[in-house]
Amino acid sequence: MSADQSLTLIDYAVAAPAFGLDMARLDADFADWRRRRAVYRKTLRELEPLSPRHFAELRMRSAEFHYIAVHSAKRA
After folding, report:
1. Ramachandran angles phi, psi of 58, nearest 5°
2. From which domain of life does this come (predicted)?
3. Which of 3, 12, 63, 75 is the most buried (most CB within 10 A)?
4. Residue 76, Cβ density class (10 Å: 0-12 exposed, 13-18 middle, ≥19 buried)
5. CB 75 within 8 A of CB 35
6. Please, are residues 73 and 37 in contact by the beta-carbon 8 Å criterion?
7. Is residue 14 part of a domain?
């Protein structure tokens, strides 16, 4: 698509309903994704500084950080 054929935001807002896209729904989904992503990143930041001794006390491995963060983001 050339520069003169690219969609502007207004063009997209007009064309989106014609293609069955609900802009309010897309905005809400994006806001929800950003909120969950923030929880995921916060959880990782909290877990990363733990020492191996803390891991042993909590009975976890550093390899589980991703899954713990994903779980906390889904619950948020």
Report:
1. -90, -5
2. Bacteria
3. 12
4. middle
5. no
6. yes
7. no
60: three-class secondary structure by DSSP: coil
43 occurs within a structural domain: yes
Predicted local distance difference test score (pLDDT) of residue 34: 93
Residue 56, amino acid: A
What is the residue range of 57's domain? 24-75
Q: Which two tokens stand for residue 46?
A: 């909290």
Residue 58 lies in a domain: yes
Q: Which residues of the chain have pLDDT under 50?
A: 1-3
Helical ranges in the chain per DSSP H:
9-18, 23-47, 52-58, 65-75
Tokens of 18: 């014609």
Please check whether residue 12 lies inside any domain of the structure: no
How confident is the model at residue 67, as a pLDDT?
92
Q: Give the model's pLDDT for residue 13.
A: 63
